[in-house]
Amino acid sequence: MRIALGQINSTVGDLAGNVALCVRFAREAAARGAELIVFPELSITGYPPRDLVEKRSFVQHSEAALRQLAQRTGDLPLSVIAGYVGQSSVPTGKQATNSAAVLRGGEIVLRQNKILLPTYDIFDEARNFVPGDTQTLWHTGQQDVALTICEDAWNDKQFWQHRLYTRDPVDELMQRGATVAISINASPFWLGKRALRLEMFGAMARRHKVPFVVVNQVGGNDQVVFDGSSFVMDAEGRVIAAAASFREDLVIADLDAGSDPASASLAETFAKDEADAVYDALVLGTRDYIRKCGFQQVLIGLSGGIDSSLTAVIALDAVGRENVRGVAMPGPFSSDHSVRDAKDMAERLGIRFDIVPITPAYEEMCRTLAPIFEGRKPDVTEENIQARLRGMTLMSLSNKFGAMVLTTGNKSEIAVGYCTLYGDMCGGLAVISDVPKTLVYELSRVANTRHSNAIPESVFVKPPSAELRPDQKDSDSLPPYHVLDAILRLYVEEFRCVREIADELSLPLDLVSDVAQKVDRNEYKRQQAAPGLKVTSKAFGMGRRFPIAQRYSENE
Amino acid sequence: MRIALGQINSTVGDLAGNVALCVRFAREAAARGAELIVFPELSITGYPPRDLVEKRSFVQHSEAALRQLAQRTGDLPLSVIAGYVGQSSVPTGKQATNSAAVLRGGEIVLRQNKILLPTYDIFDEARNFVPGDTQTLWHTGQQDVALTICEDAWNDKQFWQHRLYTRDPVDELMQRGATVAISINASPFWLGKRALRLEMFGAMARRHKVPFVVVNQVGGNDQVVFDGSSFVMDAEGRVIAAAASFREDLVIADLDAGSDPASASLAETFAKDEADAVYDALVLGTRDYIRKCGFQQVLIGLSGGIDSSLTAVIALDAVGRENVRGVAMPGPFSSDHSVRDAKDMAERLGIRFDIVPITPAYEEMCRTLAPIFEGRKPDVTEENIQARLRGMTLMSLSNKFGAMVLTTGNKSEIAVGYCTLYGDMCGGLAVISDVPKTLVYELSRVANTRHSNAIPESVFVKPPSAELRPDQKDSDSLPPYHVLDAILRLYVEEFRCVREIADELSLPLDLVSDVAQKVDRNEYKRQQAAPGLKVTSKAFGMGRRFPIAQRYSENE
Fold this sequence. Notes:
The structure is a homodimer.
Chain A: E1 2-7, H1 15-31, E2 36-38, H2 56-72, E3 79-87, E4 96-104, E5 107-113, H3 125-128, E6 138-140, E7 143-149, H4 169-175, E8 180-185, H5 193-208, E9 212-216, E10 218-221, E11 224-227, E12 231-233, E13 239-242, E14 249-254, H6 261-270, H7 274-292, E15 298-301, H8 306-319, E16 324-328, H9 336-349, E17 352-355, H10 359-373, H11 380-401, E18 404-407, H12 411-416, E19 429-430, H13 437-450, H14 457-461, H15 481-493, H16 498-505, H17 509-521, H18 523-526
Parallel strand pairs in A: 1-2, 2-3, 7-8, 8-9, 15-16, 15-18, 16-17, 18-19
Antiparallel strand pairs in A: 1-14, 3-4, 4-5, 6-7, 9-12, 10-11, 12-13
């Protein structure tokens, strides 16, 4: 059986565009002799459609788009598997289903609703969909195909120590004699995810002794980046075909062919090069957010620090050097090297660079506020005014020139609130908000490898500082970043308690407790943050939902 | 049977504080001869705890707090029903349950897990909890009690045309011979909700021919306001006891007593006076957000318009006149009457009032940007600079004096994006962000009734304007607010499509389509908005989750 993996980049809600994309891929696959093309989960609507599925018209349009896809591929000598939002036919529950259909000769020959609906982290599927209940094997040629949708294949009894669901839809279909498994996915990227997929599907292929065809979305949709990395495994769990990561791809695989060394070696890269992969994920997520929002150009405040430098290089890879504009905004406490380093890098990258000083406006604001502040000492207020004037400057350029502002805050500082709401947090997309500071340095090395050391070495070695008061350093009130990041990983990503963290890292309880309190206290800032690209197992944003007005203390 | 309704205001995460509150109410109820006190859903943890339940320590602390409550009420001659987050005992699924327990003599005599987990609008329970499966009748004295948790009682087969779940836990317990039903709730307020509760529970009482005891949370937690309005109904669905709306209350009800005219007439108010109820909900939600965040004082930008005027009066009722500070920030295009009206109202209310002009800083910003803007005409950029300077001014006062900024935008303008991100959207709480402009006028009349016409009549009659350019009026580019609000209600709250709305309201398709596009296009602003208080069936914020980078068009 000759199967095409249709690894496409759908745009959420663009039903006509997504159908056209499927048709184009299907024609190409047919021309290359495929008997079947498999598209990812919700290929027709994009993923995640979120509350768009609350609109009755949206569900109807999705059903209509599926019929259109059937018709427009009806003349092709191949079957098509596509994902769509379906109209539920059961009387109770939500109106929509997360479904897959098999199309052939202009007809919808099989429909399958997703049974296991992920409802954790960024996933809200129990909110938006009614779960499927029954399953049908699809008989085609010599094969009995077990067709499942993403989470349906992520609950293997043997693979997972702790399971979220009692049912195992793949196992159920295998019991009925399936000869091949096809899993369509919208499985987001995060650190280690590609290796996990290979490991899990490999274990399932070996357990059930059937080949697995795994097709994944590629592209960024708001906070989520899909890496693609689709593959076919034989019944021993060996990769016999693999699609690229982080770009569209059409791969034709022959189920009966043996192991393919090129594919196997591509798949091997899935399990390593993670700093490169995170970098690529950020480029793709940035490019797609900008493009799918209808923008072309971006603006970045360049402070001469490592965060804004990395963001600028990612932006360049995302939208091209001609579409990136860097702006240095020196203030009263900016060091000489900050503008110099920013300018230096902008020149090396070949991006447009402007200098807009904030000092005059800062002084005017201070004069305006002097009467009402009389008798009060300078404090964080004046620091925030500087950050907010920079935010205002960037937003003014954005308004005037129609470019999107990218924010440059990293995960470590957003976690502990070392950022100014309506200041450096201004922007349309928070590119590196899920990248801990230690990883920022690693990714900056990746950036420099790709762009002949565009980020000056001085940027790597200078001590991190917000430069909002004389001689300010991040280390004045934070532990070193490698310590901070270790604490944050356990506290934010793993929900561990302070005492455990202190024990595990051999750190003073007070230090860990202080960091944890900073994280908790700054929830209000994060809830007004720009959307950020998720690259770890737990990002701030839609995947981590905490109350603001709450008083939980672990020390009760 | 003598039952106390323990209508308390829990704080999310404040386990020790919530237990102490329960103990105090239980002692009082015992002193007044109650045999049983019933507290609301998740009374021990507060509602919604959201992802706090992902912390293993939180679940353990909640279980420990329940045992503490049992011990600390163990000497009282009454039973206690309380809600808590439980540790799941089933091997698959989430770690936590949403549970109720019956406490007596220091022991936990019964535990019941919530079976139906609401997962729509603001509710994320399938994300956070594993559902219960089995139920047990609680036998006490002469009664067999059907104890259910909120949603478990909201799926009556006969009452709802469309049901979300196949199971009806109340019905199941009634089949087993329950003689009284107790429903503990965290049922948020919105327009019409109190009447719906009476109607639904009344229908259930009559159908099952048993009395219903319905206890609800009271208080604000982030975006959600619980109104209380607990009640007891006899087996004919008549109210025989009722607790206040929008404040804590302890009501003792005798199940065998007949109808009580005072309670019945209190309950009658639940079904009307909705403008008053919305006003009260906003006061409570504002007070609790400020208090539970640890603030005392608030700052409001007073423009002399109706939105900021209403917000100021609500704030005064929430935290007292001594804790409200109004700031007028006249700019280059402010009319004379704006500062005059703002000052006039501040004087009538007796709140502190300051004037901080933004014109000097505005002119300085324009000078700074002049070189980079050369050859470009003034546009929305300059309007936004004014709004952002006001936001910065308020945030500076907030930073310096430790007061929370309240934003003053209404639902209509937030819907269509007539607000400036990082400008008038700056603040900790968006008090009236779920109040359509037409309702803003109604609530302002309520405010004036309670505060001897503090809002000057001129504020009601002036045409709405942002005053960001000469002679600007909202009506320059928006339909009249009664038309806009009618469109928004159908489009935003009911997810209706443009064509249907145009037909239903007899409006030109273009007009409706233009409004709908404005709503869609401004999703990015709303995702960075301050949390707002929900008072309608569908508010922006956590209860309405749309993608930003999406291209759905109903006209496909």
